[in-house]
Amino acid sequence: MTVAIFGLWRNWAVAVGVLTVLAFLAPIVPRVWLLPIDIVAYIGLQIMRRVLRGRHVPSCMRLIQEVSTIVLISACLISLICILTPTGLIRDISGNQFTADTPLLAILITAPTTCIVTACFLLNRTEPHVCRQCKMRYGNVIEHGFIGGLFRREWCYQTRLLMLLSLALTLVDWSYYIINYVNVNLNRADFFYFLWMPLVIYILSLIYLGSRYYSMWVYYCHNDEGHYVETPGATTLRFLLINDNRMLIDLPGLDTTRNSAARGVKFDTPVSVKLPYRENESLSDAISLFRQRTGIADAEIRHIYNSPDPVTYQNMFHYFAFIPGSGLPEGAQISGEWLTLGEIYELGRYGAINRTLITELRRIYEVAMAWKTYDREGRRLYDIKHYQPTFRLRDLHKWDVDYDDETWLRVRQLNQDKPLWRLRSLFRKAADKLTMQA
Predict the structure, then answer these.
(1) Distance CA 4, CA 148 (A)
(2) CB-neighbour burial class of residue 398 (10 A; exposed 0-12, middle 13-18, buried 19+)
(3) Contact of 421 with 415, CB cutoff 8 Å
(4) Cα-Cα-Cα-Cα dihedral of 158, 161, 165, 166, to 10°?
(5) Residue 88: per-residue pLDDT
(6) What angle do CA 94, 100, 105 make, to 5 degrees?
(7) Could you tell me the pLDDT band of residue 146, with boundaries at 50, 70 and 90?
(8) How far apart are CA 225 and CA 353, in angstroms?
(9) N or C: lower Cβ tally within 10 Å for the chain?
């Protein structure tokens, strides 16, 4: 919990610190160095993302992704200014020609860019790629757990704070630039508005957020009623029962229409066992628990993947239970309805399916489709662009897929059918090497 909470402060310190340093350096370093510095800053943020993504304890990297976008856009705009400077097309607010000796006030570019990008991220209703990767990597702890809710709430808070601070800087600096700036050299007032004020605001934000996350840490890690670290959580074993091309869903005498969703009903797998927290669970123990819970002795149990939670100790282990014959055997201690994927999808459209089950099916589908369509490097197995093989529940029993292998999750997101696949693959390999060296 300590690492997760203070990781939010660290991400702000590094990401916003990069923006502050870039704005501070622009007027005082040779202009030829600005683009290389921006590129190094962007690569550094990507390396940080990859290092954090490989750690056992999750860390929210959405703010880092936002700042990476801001750095790229700012670098493009600054490069465009540098390219157009010799043509004489760019002039300052007083109408004088912008020359190579004119100080480049990067804060006038980065502040409005930051304001616009953060506003777009806040207004965007589509989940970004970095969040989908995080959910696939950490599973239930991010999808439904306490730490995932904390990350989502604090990302919104930090992004709004960054947007408001950048908006304030935009209004103040552009007002000063229009009213008082003279394109001769930088005087004391210029240094204050364009260099020192952003730095001071950044330092004050570090102090403010530091006190916020310290208070949060005290509450969650020292308050007995909310002590998530020393008070053990629970381990949940979930079994997806498969028979031919159907899955058993617990429908306790309720209709499968929109009315069920309206009453807050969430249909789920009928077999979910909750135990005291344990870090690992053997397959033999899972088989014994399944037989005790269901009374079914001839089901084939296979491990799917784990959802570890090193923060609040609420981890999950997911299993297939392949039921032979035509359905549940006599004497089974569970009940439910056998539904096809299409029927489950329709229930999901009404919002009547448990979110954990949706996450499981999404994970299984994403990994299986990547495994069936591409090799481990992302190259197509079939010489047909955008070919999608079939996905059927009855085939799960025949497939030998490691659903815990994150390689297939990455291949699903970056493969030969994606734009600029080779270039992005080279960049990813280079970033992986830099990450290993870091």
Answers:
(1) 10
(2) exposed
(3) yes
(4) 60
(5) 55
(6) 60
(7) confident
(8) 31
(9) C
